[in-house]
Amino acid sequence: MEKGATSLARPEEKILPLDRMRQQVKEWQAVGLTVVFTNGCFDLLHVGHVTLIDDARREGDRLILAINSDASVRAMKGPARPIVNQHARARVLAALAAVDAVVIFDEPTPRELMMALQPDVIVKGGDYAADQIVGAEEVRSWGGRVKIVSFVEGFSTTKLIAKAAIPERG
Fold it and tell me: Does the pLDDT of residue 163 top 90, yes or no?
């Protein structure tokens, strides 16, 4: 298989449980591919999410998206969230050409998942300092790197929900 090709073609095949994701990462790294990891809730996909995903994809050969489970999103954002369930979010994200694999995690942060997968690069968007990013110290400990990409101002799921709640004037 060529370096740029992915063995996971159909979106459903890109959504992997942890044990299969761990195996897939090892296979990619064994043939010299750089594995990139980013994470988030990705509830109500918007241009900020897509920009993060595209920027992350440019950092390596394979991109893993780790998404918070429904329970994890509720714990962080409250009982009304997520708007879109974890299976639907995973399916939509897996359909994006930039995404090579999707994994769902239950913990409040992706630290344990990062430790299990040991990606070569972790990417976050926003105004973080690299040392504030969960998993930064760990990824550097195995020779990986941390990349912060620009944040798209004005786009958030919370803002989309608020806008959708405003009745139309007519």
Answer: no
